């Protein structure tokens, strides 16, 4: 198996381990993060009901910053925090999606915290 496939498989195992421990409820939904090479996606998910409460991505037309850099992650953190507050959500559980809590993931989380989300 080449290194790229090994890395993808390893992230899948880490993601599964995180998901066993992290689950969202109506009162405290899961803030799930997904990265690609070009974009960052984030959702507030109520796992008990199986529905998405709010979502934002760097692909949105109303997004101020495009791409997958830390500036886009900060803007996305602020955007999801605003959407969450509009829906009446202030506390969430953070699902880093198997990614290291570093760089863009940390920037997104810090921006969400600065804009009123608690986790």
Describe the structure.
The protein is α+β, with helices and mostly antiparallel strands. It has a single domain, classed as Nucleotidyltransferase, domain 5 (2-Layer Sandwich), CATH 3.30.420.100. The chain contains three helices and four strands. It has a four-stranded mixed β-sheet with strand order 3-2-1-4, covered by helices on one side. A hairpin with a 4-residue loop joins strand 2 and strand 3. Helix 2 runs parallel beside helix 3. The longest helix has 19 residues. The termini are far apart.
Feature tags:
alpha+beta, 119 residues, 4-stranded mixed β-sheet, single chain, 39% helix, 3 helices, Nucleotidyltransferase, domain 5
What's the domain count? 1
Quickly name the level 1 CATH class. Answer: Alpha Beta
Mean pLDDT across all amino acids:
93
Q: What is the global morphology?
A: globular
Rg, alpha carbons: 14 Å
Count the DSSP helices.
3
Specify the structural class.
alpha+beta
Total number of strands: 4
The percent range for strand residues is: 15-25%
Under the CATH scheme, the architecture is 2-Layer Sandwich
Q: What's the N-to-C terminus distance?
A: 38 Å
In which range does the helix fraction lie?
Answer: 25-40%
Might you state the CATH topology name?
A: Nucleotidyltransferase, domain 5
- Major sheet: 4 strands, mixed
Strand order of the largest sheet: 3-2-1-4
Uncertain parts: none
Order of helices and strands: HEEEHEH
């Amino acid at each position: 198996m080449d290194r790229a496939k090994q890395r993808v498989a390893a992230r899948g195992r880490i993601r599964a381990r995180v998901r066993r421990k992290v689950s969202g409820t109506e009162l405290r939904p899961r803030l799930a993060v997904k990265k690609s090479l070009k974009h960052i996606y984030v959702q507030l998910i109520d796992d008990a009901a199986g529905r998405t409460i709010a979502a934002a991505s760097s692909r949105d037309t109303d997004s101020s910053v495009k791409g997958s850099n830390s500036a886009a992650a900060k803007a996305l953190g602020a955007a999801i925090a605003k959407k969450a507050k509009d829906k009446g959500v202030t506390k969430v559980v953070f699902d880093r999606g198997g990614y290291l809590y570093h760089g863009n993931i940390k920037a997104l989380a810090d921006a969400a915290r600065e804009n009123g989300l608690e986790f």
